[in-house]
Amino acid sequence: MKPQKCTQDSSVIISRVMLPEDANPAGIVHGGVIMKEIDNAAGVTAVRHTRKICVTASIDRLDFHKPAFIGNLITVKAGVNMTGKTSMEIGARVETEDLFTGVKTHLASAYLTFVALGDDKRPIPVPPLTPVTQEDFRRNREAIARRELRLSEKKKESECQKDTSAC
Length: 167
Known about the structure:
Blueprint: H1 7-10, E1 12-17, H2 31-50, E2 53-64, E3 73-83, E4 87-97, E5 104-117, H3 134-162
Antiparallel strand pairs: 1-3, 2-5, 3-4, 4-5
């Protein structure tokens, strides 16, 4: 049995200043640049939790609330919300900071599923997550609900592919 871990064991905070190559001609940062930063932080979190190679299986949600601009500091905070047998949901919160004014804004939130891989590049079991704080328990409950919805949608998609009249 693998040792249990808590969210704080693998959480990460990664920051990067947005440069002209990250943005469109109006100076607004591309969504794909933000997505890459989210995937990077979530990937580091997954590897810290498992100490194994991990790959992105899905991005469940990615909601942008505000834009980011050239010169802003983007900070991604990522942590494990829930673990399954071979996968884990990682939540990411992105904040942008105007370095001249100090104003911080909630830019985006995302939920990603990562799978741990063994030496043969096949899925392997991940260490169980032990919620500690009330926030950990809340995030875990919400992740379980998202997983149930995701599996239900996946089942319906599969049924639709087999029989279009079932859609």
